[in-house]
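for the recovery benchmark. tokens below, seq after
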């Protein structure tokens, strides 16, 4: 995990950053697909590879560059963007998370030994005021057998040390900041996922997933408690 120095942002600047991110997501057709985006996302869409879970509302967009290639695998991943996996070269390599259009500004680096069916998520979270920006590499090892659907939750909400998450037909889960739950069995069909800050019950977002049989999903809760939060859906497999 890496932490960047604190640089305090005024509320007006944070709002401006959020407006830019929302505008970018609208222009790109951002929504809840999590794996169907095409175009300027870097490498080609894939069922395997690497993706970024960008949860920091006041952080710049980011790219992912592999030491095994010269161009960005993931490019221009904004806050709460839903780009899915991008294809990844096989073999030992270093994945670098960089600020978009500035590959020399490396936020974090991770050594991986990727196979043909490897899946990685880079969680980019925290803030520029109190916590610093943080990163975490998650190896996405989904459940082998899924009778209905499977859903896991990632807590990227700054100011929420713990989220209490409810999923249709499942017991509520507690998920720490920067952590993820295990995959939770869910029925195929309409599934509602909602989260609230465990400390005071304030809502942190919700969404409804049309879960398909045999599919696994990740729901990222992103943003900052008391300012702006958003739930983002990614398809894992």
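predicted aa per position
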């Amino acid at each position: 995990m890496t932490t960047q120095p604190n640089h305090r942002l005024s509320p007006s600047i944070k709002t401006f950053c959020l407006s830019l991110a929302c505008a970018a997501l609208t222009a790109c057709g951002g929504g809840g697909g999590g794996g169907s985006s095409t175009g300027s996302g870097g490498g080609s869409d894939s069922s395997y590879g690497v993706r970024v879970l960008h949860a920091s509302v006041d952080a710049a967009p980011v790219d992912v560059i592999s030491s095994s290639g010269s161009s960005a695998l993931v490019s221009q991943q904004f806050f709460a963007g839903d780009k899915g996996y991008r294809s990844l070269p096989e073999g030992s390599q270093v994945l670098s998370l960089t600020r978009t259009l500035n590959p020399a500004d490396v936020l974090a680096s991770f050594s991986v030994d990727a196979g043909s069916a490897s899946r990685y998520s880079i969680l980019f979270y925290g803030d520029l005021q109190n916590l610093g920006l943080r990163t975490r590499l998650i190896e996405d090892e989904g459940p082998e057998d899924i009778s209905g659907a499977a859903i896991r939750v990632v807590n990227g909400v700054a100011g929420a040390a713990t989220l209490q998450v409810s999923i249709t037909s499942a017991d509520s889960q507690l998920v720490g900041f920067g952590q993820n739950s295990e995959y939770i069995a869910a029925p195929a069909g309409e599934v509602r996922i909602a989260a609230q800050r465990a400390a005071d019950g304030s809502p942190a977002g919700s969404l409804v997933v049309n879960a398909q049989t045999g599919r696994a999903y990740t729901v990222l809760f992103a943003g900052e408690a008391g300012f702006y939060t958003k739930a983002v859906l990614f398809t894992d497999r």
